[in-house]
Specification:
By secondary structure, the protein is an all-alpha fold. 63% of the residues lie in helices and 1% in strands.
Length: 481
């Protein structure tokens, strides 16, 4: 191990080393990276930054009145752009790049498997099978094309700031939807929460607030109750990290506000899994800072993070009533193992005791999720009883059986191993700090594997997007011997 591998970075660091601050027109970067003048502009520049904006604001089309007629293009917009970006990178640059990510081999094998699964007799139709396979590909394709657009630390920091801003705004809207639902709640919710059939589902997504007022779990910039919790998770963690960096106060305070709104949005959505994952992400980042001997940074993160967790609960209780506090206090009052098993653990058990025996090589594509809803009409395919996937292992088993489960697991394991090795071998402390931010952010997505289906949604695409951004930004950074 290099003797200076985990030497601490002075905190706050001197101005000339402020790699987070370079986004905000700080002192010149002394790292030796070629500087692009566009990296100092305050507005988004470059395809990757606009793509990061699209992850939030393309689905936000459904927030607008009378937008349900455009639900399909709004939902598939970001996925289609991701697939288009891969094609653009491939034909424009011939698929050339300096280095490859260790997960790529497993993902390409998985793509071949999904192509074969289109012909599975359980796939409802050719169109449905192609749509589901393309969805998978769109979600993991950023690992291939993003490094071509994010090839420096400055660009990576800008993308993180864009994600913080978008998810912070999303979280703020979620809080306002509880404070003043008449003004901020979407005029139309998803079709599954409307009409005769959706009445029970909407009742389950409603709780009693102050004065007996019925509160719908805030959707944020979307149309599904409770959906703001995902944005809240990212806003809480990134907002806290940016607040503790040596930025001017008028830039740090908005970051702090976004962290508070993000945490409050999680409380108001009543999604306990997002709360646990957020604490896990904070704890993981704190552990990385401790291992890198960032004592002052770790202490500041722990103290301010604790204050945000407690203070945001007070804000959420004020807006949402005592039911908010009671909901999250069950995490302390009940056995966590029992709580998890009743909520999602039973589904994980079902995957490995029932599904894998019934479908060792998959049940066919488009049997669950978005592709099934929009394209999965019954065309005489065999074995058409209803199936569903509430956690990720179930989805992988349904879509490809043991082979898909193993391949995607290998892709994620190789990614984790690569990330931890990257943090350990990067020579400059500032590089390790930036890598730790991305790795801690992505850690939450991995935790969600056993609570819902992140790699069938935009959360999985964001994971591979950030992983590709980290890989591209650090590809040419100096390593220890």
């Amino acid at each position: 191990m290099h003797p200076n591998q985990f030497d601490s970075v002075p905190w706050p660091p001197p101005a000339e080393a402020g790699d987070i601050d370079v986004l905000f027109d700080a002192a010149p970067d002394t790292s030796g990276e070629a500087e692009d003048p566009r990296d100092r502009r305050w507005f988004p520049t470059g395809f990757a930054e606009w793509f990061a904006i699209g992850l939030t604001f393309l689905p936000a089309i459904l927030y607008l009145p009378n937008s349900q007629a455009y639900r399909l293009p709004a939902r598939v917009g970001a996925y289609g752009i991701s697939a288009f970006a891969f094609a653009l990178w491939w034909f424009d640059r011939g698929g050339r790049k300096d280095t490859s990510h260790p997960a790529e081999r497993w993902l390409m094998m998985m793509a071949l498997l999904l192509g074969a699964m289109i012909l599975h007799p359980g796939t409802p139709s050719l169109l449905a099978g192609v749509a589901h396979a393309v969805l998978y590909f769109s979600i993991f394709s950023p690992i291939f094309w993003v490094p071509a657009y994010i090839n420096s630390r400055r660009k990576l920091v800008r993308v993180l700031a864009v994600l913080l801003l978008c998810n912070g705004i999303n979280s703020l809207v979620g809080v306002l939807q509880v404070y003043d639902p008449d003004r901020w709640m979407p005029r139309q919710l998803s079709a599954q929460f409307t009409g005769e059939n959706g009445r029970d589902a909407l009742a389950a997504a409603t709780y009693i607030g102050p004065g007996g007022r019925a509160i719908i779990r805030p959707p944020g910039l979307f149309d599904t109750p409770g959906a703001v919790c995902s944005a809240g998770t990212l806003a809480a963690v990134l907002g806290l990290i940016f607040f503790l960096e040596p930025l001017p106060w008028w830039k740090r305070l908005p970051a702090l506000a976004m962290a508070v709104f993000g945490m409050a949005a999680i409380y108001l959505s009543h999604v306990r899994a997002s709360f646990v994952v957020t604490l896990g992400m904070m704890g993981f980042y704190l552990a990385l800072m401790t291992l890198q001997r960032q004592g002052k940074r770790a202490a500041g993160f722990a103290s301010v993070g604790s204050a945000i967790v407690v203070g945001s609960l007070s804000l959420a209780t004020l807006l949402g009533g005592e039911s908010v506090q009671e909901r999250f206090m069950t995490l302390l009052g009940d056995d966590p193992r029992t709580t998890y098993y009743q909520a999602r653990g039973v589904q994980v058990e079902y995957a490995f005791t029932d599904l894998v025996e019934r479908y060792p090589f998959g049940a066919g594509l488009a049997r669950w999720g978005m592709a099934s809803y929009y394209f999965g009409t019954d065309t005489g395919a065999i074995d058409q009883e209803g199936v569903f996937a509430e956690v990720q292992p179930n989805a992988w088993i349904l879509d490809g059986g043991w082979p898909l489960l193993i391949l995607y697991t290998l892709a994620l394991v190789s990614t984790v191993a690569f990330d931890l090795s990257l943090i350990r071998t990067l020579r400059e402390p500032a590089d390790r700090l930036l890598a730790s931010i991305v790795v801690a952010t992505n850690f939450g997505t991995l935790f969600f594997l056993f609570t819902f289906v992140p790699f069938g949604t935009a959360a999985g695409m964001q994971f591979w997007f950030l992983e590709g951004a980290l890989h591209g930004a650090m590809a040419s950074r100096p390593r220890t011997d």
